[in-house]
Please model this.
Amino acid sequence: MSSKLQRLNLYFQLHLKNIQQQEICSFLRDLLRHLRGHVFLFWDGGRPHKGRLVQELCRRVHRLHLVRFPGYAPELNPDEGIWKLAKQKLANGCPSDLRDLTHSLVRALDSIRKNRKNLRGCITHSALPPFLRSSLHS
Model:
């Protein structure tokens, strides 16, 4: 969500392999180019999220704030709702190959991105503390 404009949005990149610190830093730099003001990113404690390159980027970019979810707490993560919606959109599909599957997934995520009510629902239905849900719900 844009902190200045209070606009909710979904930003994503798809990768065909497990991502490393380099891909995370690239995504964060792209995200920072699109968003003004302070950016708060809530994420899990995955190994690439804690690496040296990510820490260096955070030290250099003072408006980027990384907030780690507690371990084993998927119920706090609004992304779980996004993936649930995406899986519903992909259900009963029969992609012919990886390219077809990727195209279908991007279409599903774009559809979710355009539906602000569904995006807000993913936040509202998460177990985030109420003060975070209300600030992200605007």
In short: The helical segments are 21-34, 52-60, 79-90, 98-114, 116-124, 130-137.
